[in-house]
Structure formats: structure tokens, C-alpha cells
Amino acid sequence: xxxxxxxxxxxxxxxxxxxxxxxxxxxxxxxxxxxxxxxxxxxxxxxxxxxxxxxxxxxxxxxxxxxxxxxxxxxxxxxxxxxxxxxxxxxxxxxxxxxxxxxxxxxxxxxxxxxxxxxxxxxxxxxxxxxxxxxxxxxxxxxxxxxxxxxxxxxxxxxxxxxxxxxxxxxxxxxxxxxxxxxxxxxxxxxxxxxxxxxxxxxxxxxxxxxxxxxxxxxxxxxxxxxxxxxxxxxxxxxxxxxxxxxxxxxxxxxxxxxxxxxxxxxxxxxxxxxxxxxxxxxxxxxxxxxxxxxxxxxxxxxxxxxxxxxxxxxxxxxxxxxxxxxxxxxxxxxxxxxxxxxxxxxxxxxxxxxxxxxxxxxxxxxxxxxxxxxxxxxxxxxxxxxxxxxxxxxxxxxxxxxxxxxxxxxxxxxxxxxxxxxxxxxxxxxxxxxxxxxxxxxxxxxxxxxxxxxxxxxxxxxxxxxxxxxxxxxxxxxxxxxxxxxxxxxxxxxxxxxxxxxxxxxxxxxxxxxxxxxxxxxxxxxx
Length: 528
Hints:
Layout: H1 3-33, E1 43-48, H2 68-73, E2 81-83, E3 89-91, E4 94-101, E5 104-109, H3 123-136, H4 138-144, E6 146-152, E7 155-160, H5 167-170, E8 197-203, E9 206-211, E10 224-229, H6 233-241, E11 247-249, H7 253-260, E12 266-281, H8 291-300, H9 303-310, E13 315-317, H10 340-349, E14 362-363, E15 366-367, E16 369-374, H11 380-395, E17 398-403, H12 407-413, E18 418-424, H13 432-438, H14 453-463, H15 468-485, E19 488-501
Parallel strand pairs: 1-10, 1-11, 16-17, 16-18
Antiparallel strand pairs: 2-3, 4-5, 5-7, 6-7, 8-9, 9-10, 11-19, 12-18, 12-19, 13-19, 14-15
């Protein structure tokens, strides 16, 4: 047997054994974690990379971290307003609103809505939920700035300490899922929402859901949903091929062609999103306090090649924070582009030259060496880290990559120089969400401690502006200044793919990356 044949045989055996392990794991967890499907019940099994501790959403309580994403994605919670396909807010648990003044919003609550425990989701329940939200959730507190929440009749009145230009958009954030706060929010299996499904059991790697018999919105077509976190791309691929799951999210790009070639069995639904692969510069790092170094790093990245070769064109190069389909994104701003020659010239201007011939620039006898921190549960992030390692080597910068799902620990300790993550930049359909959370000294996710007084002043004006056109112009000015400061590097925006068996219906991607499991989800046949 040749070396090549031997390697193929070993690889085939490993794949066979791995597939068997996946089957056993899913069968065991399916039997142990929830009641066995009754005769005639429909069960939807979903494998995803978008659930887990690394994404801060391994739970169902929307008032904790990013767990609201799980609540709304998997059909447990709903918000007062939701986004349509053009990312405009439309009523959901509410029927409308008005603004008596710049700091107040009055929201009309929909009649006939109940929580999954049968309790009415009326104005009093909504007000209690929002009061609890801003009491315990730092991001919501900072975004909404609510000074009072009151209920009278079917009206909830919100008063804010800031002008409420983006308040309705902010309430579409998953933390705005309305839950019954009279129940225990510490136990994720007891979080009571208004959605079509109820949590039966939950761990950091798996969720079991059963349809809500009290759902106010009409017939729920599927009886059970099992969401399984599968962060290994090969395992995720084989799970769908072998029939252990009905649909997957986060499929490796190299695997998608397998399902494109099997259209008789599978289908792929895609949608452009505002999820961006970005990297923040750490302004506490002495070398990165020099704008020329930050600029050189940005110019070293070949974004087009990253999207084309590593993402298999399942995305598009990012010019700035927001995608081109938004009025304040894409070509409305500009960056320095891919320019490795200028990157090397800037490093030389900053005093860094390769004096010892080892291929890396140095200054005062020390190489320019940086630490890149990221996590692995988004397949694109390790790809970007590896690509940047090569790009920066060409420029003369040594890059050490730390790709770990414990990235939060390193982030808190400050053990990093460049931190890369994947984030939806317009989850509320308005630029204020991302800008407020990243660009000022008070921003919750200004991880690199970037500060520019001009940006602070622009953000202040932006927050109080109601006119959509002027808001867009201010957003463009803010992002352009951040790009000029080279405080953040934006590599590409994601096109999200959901790959599924042909029989699955009502399971579609959305530009905001929410609303996956709904009442319309349907799986043909009986429980398996």
C-alpha cells in the first residue's frame, strides 16, 4: 500500500468512527435529555456553531449577557417590535407607539398575548420585565437609559434620560425579549417567554424545547426542537450527511459544495448579514500607540483574498463597520486598502527595520512582535488569524495567535494586543447600537480603550438626532474618523448559510441573525 493510500484509509476509518460517535452522542442525549417523541410527533434536530459559552449565549435568560439571542433564535422569547427583511422595526408584542416628547415613548401592548405558563402578557407584565432588565443588564441600561417605566391600561410609557431616537430599534435587541419576571430567571429551564416553544432542558451544549400549548400566535407545526452545539466543522458536516440533524448553521465553506451537489436531498438558504469579522487594537500596547504601526497592520490585510480564498466567497470585503446595503455603510466611507509596500514604509518611518536579517523588523534590538487573540467557535476567526499571521510576516511583523474559547479570560487580563471577534453591527437596524457600544470611553465593548474627543462629540450629537438623513451622515463621520485612527480593522461581512434536508419548511435565515425557530418550522414525518 502506498503512503497516500494508507493516509486515505486511515482518514476514512477516522471519519467512520467519528460518525459513529456523533450518532451515539446524539441518540444518547436525545433519549436522556427529554421525553421520547410520542407517535406522530414532529422533531426538528438542529446542529449549530452559534450556541455556547464562547458566544456568551449558553442560556435562555435575556437579562443575562447575550442569552437573549438564544431565547429569540430558538423560539422561547419575543420582543415588542421585530425587524422585517429590510431591517425596519414592525410591531410584534406591541401594536404601535407614539412620542409625546423627545424623551418619552408610549407603547401599545397587543391584547390576547399570554406567556407560556398561561399568564397574560399585559402592560403591567411588560413594564415589570423592562424595569428588571435595566436593573440587572448593563448593556441594556447603557443603551436605553430609562429613568421610569410605567403601565396604565394597555400602554407602557418609557421615559429616558436621553433623546429616544433609536429606542424602538433598541427594543428589538434580543435582551428586549419579554419574559415573566415573577418566575425564576436563575434557572434557564424556568424562563417563561411568549414564544412558540418552551425550554425542557438546557446545558452549555444542548437545548431541548417543546411546543408551547398556550402560544398566542397560532398553530405551532413542530412538537419538539433539539438544538445541539457542534463546534467542529467536520462533525457538523457528517451529522447532516448521516441524518442525525435536519439542518445546520456554521457549515465549513469547504463542505458546502458537497450539499450543493446533492440538491435532490439538501437545500441551502443564504442571506447577507451585518456580521463583521473585526479586530480591535489595544491602545495599552506601547507599539500600538503609534498610529503608523496600526495603519501598517490594516494595510497588510488583503480583504479580497480573505473573502475569496478562505471564505469561498461566502461573504464580502468590509470597507468599514457597516455593510453596503445600509445607507450609512459600504462605500460611504473609505479605508487605506491593501498596500503592503506602504505598510513596510510606515514601519520604517516608525523606526522598525530588519537589522538582523531574520525577516522581522526590529527596533532597539527587539522584534516587533504582537499577540492576536480570538476564539474558535466561529470558523472564520481562526482563518482570519492564520491569514493575518502570513500577511503581517510579509510586512515584517511577528504575530503570535491565541485562538481559544477562553478568550474572555485573556481579554479581561489584558493579555493581548489585537482582539478579533465576529459581531452583528446593525442588530437593531440602526447604527447607534454598535457605535454606542464600541467607540467611546464609556462603551461596554471598547476593549482596546480607544478614545478620540472628536468621536465623543459626534456620538453625543448623533444620540440626540431624530432626522434619519442627519443620523446617517453623523454615523458616516464617526466611522470614518475611527478608520482614519486605525482603531479597528474590518476584514469582511458574512453571508449566512442554513443547510437543511429538503423536507424542512419554514426555517429561513434573516439579515439580523435572529428568528430561526418559529411556529412555521415544519419537519415532515413522525418523530424519529
